[in-house]
């Protein structure tokens, strides 16, 4: 684990200890964290990757730090100086009235009379994990200082980022079901992602901002050593069309069939050996 309730695991400041003891989320104006369980929230925001410098944001609320995502999306959706407001968890129905899912945030542009005149959709994509993060989290909460000195990386079911499931099982269906409707309405989508996640995607075909349906808003975490906190900073915004982006993410590059046959042969040999 890298961050718990908004702070690095080795941050023992009064603010960090307050967030841990009261289960507060500093990225949502210090309201109670409700991730996984309302009464016993799983307050893990970020986990380390294979190297200590790698991070994976596993809670979408982590990408809300400073509300940067709203300001960045507004520059894609609306003209400069527009009035806008984010509206959370908006249900989107298809033609038959069936739910196509909830939009994480709708950014609504309104006029001086408070009437909505335009809108765009924001999807926040964090990363799934494989393994069990609840157990190390629970142990950490009992004694943060002791836990921070313990090497849990060799433990069974230690949590690791599952980027493939995050893109193909979560992100792509979101873009297909919700994106298709928004595309029909000629409305745009902004996808907020952590740079470590975006870097696992295939190289997406870019277009000029004026032609884009989707803005990929990529953010990175940088450690402020003086305050011992991670700060979310904008890295890059990449513009694509919806359908080519979906096709690129869902198309696999074929490897060598001989390698696959050799793998099957080894599996068969092991199976025969076990049965004998």
Describe the structure.
- The chain has 276 residues and is α+β, with helices and mostly antiparallel strands.
- It has one domain (3-250).
- Helices cover 32% and strands 30% of the residues.
- The protein is built from eight helices and 14 strands.
- The chain has helices at residues 14-22, 68-77, 134-142, 144-148, 163-184, 195-198, 242-250, 257-275; strands at 3-4, 7-8, 24-25, 31-32, 44-48, 55-57, 83-93, 99-110, 116-125, 128-130, 160-162, 189-194, 214-224, 229-240.
- It has a six-stranded mixed β-sheet with strand order 7-8-9-12-13-14, sandwiched between helices.
- Strand 5 (44-48) and strand 6 form a beta hairpin.
- The termini are far apart.
- The model has no long low-confidence stretch (mean pLDDT 89).
Task: Set down the secondary structure blueprint.
Layout: E1 3-4, E2 7-8, H1 14-22, E3 24-25, E4 31-32, E5 44-48, E6 55-57, H2 68-77, E7 83-93, E8 99-110, E9 116-125, E10 128-130, H3 134-142, H4 144-148, E11 160-162, H5 163-184, E12 189-194, H6 195-198, E13 214-224, E14 229-240, H7 242-250, H8 257-275
Parallel strand pairs: 9-12, 12-13
Antiparallel strand pairs: 1-2, 1-5, 3-4, 5-6, 7-8, 8-9, 10-11, 13-14
The best one-word shape is: globular
Unreliable sequence segments: none
H/E element string?
EEHEEEEHEEEEHHEHEHEEHH
Helix content: 25-40%
- Rounded to the nearest angstrom, the radius of gyration is 21 Å
Supply the key terms.
single chain; 276 residues; alpha+beta; six-stranded mixed β-sheet; four-stranded antiparallel β-sheet; 14 strands
